[in-house]
Design brief:
By secondary structure, this protein is an alpha/beta fold. It contains 8 helices and 7 strands, in the order βαββαβααααβαββα. Helix 3 packs across helix 4. The radius of gyration is 16 Å and the shape is globular. The protein starts with 5 loop residues before the first strand and ends with a helix.
Length: 187
């Protein structure tokens, strides 16, 4: 299967393999068969270029609890060998609705929804052309859900978004769809 731009909705029951598929696409797990190739302008990406081309957010993405949201993003930018301009990073937090309430607070004090917003900010950290979002709306209030929808709309206009969810309402006008429940049942 080839996925270009737009939104790929990955649906399925709990345990159907959504998270595993997304981790393979994000380069966090190796596939047991087949391969995943990430391209930019028709050129396959590998190594660091591939890692930075895919923005990942998933429920098991953890942060350093004693650090603030800004300090966490700064750490991850520097760990990737990139500059960490605090104004830019604050802008990323603001884009997810976190900036004012999170700048000076340790992440360990965050609510579930605030952590989810930070995960989305992390996925956007390197302006990736591809976003891979696993249950990005879990634990979010109405404003948070709208923020994710806005992020998805902007990302699908410049590249591709792969979004997995158990909730049909999380898929807003998908361009492609995979239902892993149907795939697993046919085996």
């Amino acid at each position: 299967m080839r996925v270009g731009g737009g939104l790929l909705a990955v649906a399925g029951r709990n345990g159907s393999g959504k998270t595993t598929l997304l981790k393979i696409l994000a380069g966090l797990l190796r596939p047991s068969a087949g391969r995943v190739r990430v391209e930019r302008d028709g050129v396959p990406l590998a190594g660091e270029a591939r890692r930075l081309a895919v923005g990942w957010a998933g429920p098991d993405l953890s942060f350093y609890g004693e650090l603030t949201a800004l300090e966490n993003l700064r750490f991850f930018r520097r760990a990737a060998g990139r500059a960490a301009d605090d104004r830019e990073l604050t802008g990323r937090l603001s884009e997810t609705g976190l900036a004012e309430e999170a700048i000076g607070r340790p992440v360990e004090e965050f609510s579930t929804g605030m952590r989810q917003r930070l995960r989305v900010a992390f996925a956007l950290l390197f302006d990736p052309p591809i976003l891979v979002l696993d249950e990005p709306m879990a634990g979010l209030d109405t404003d948070g859900r709208e923020m994710v929808q806005d992020v998805v709309e902007r990302a699908r206009a410049r590249g591709g978004v792969v979004l997995a969810s158990n909730e049909e309402r999380d898929f807003v006008r998908p361009d492609h769809r995979i239902d892993l429940s149907a795939v697993r049942a046919s085996r």
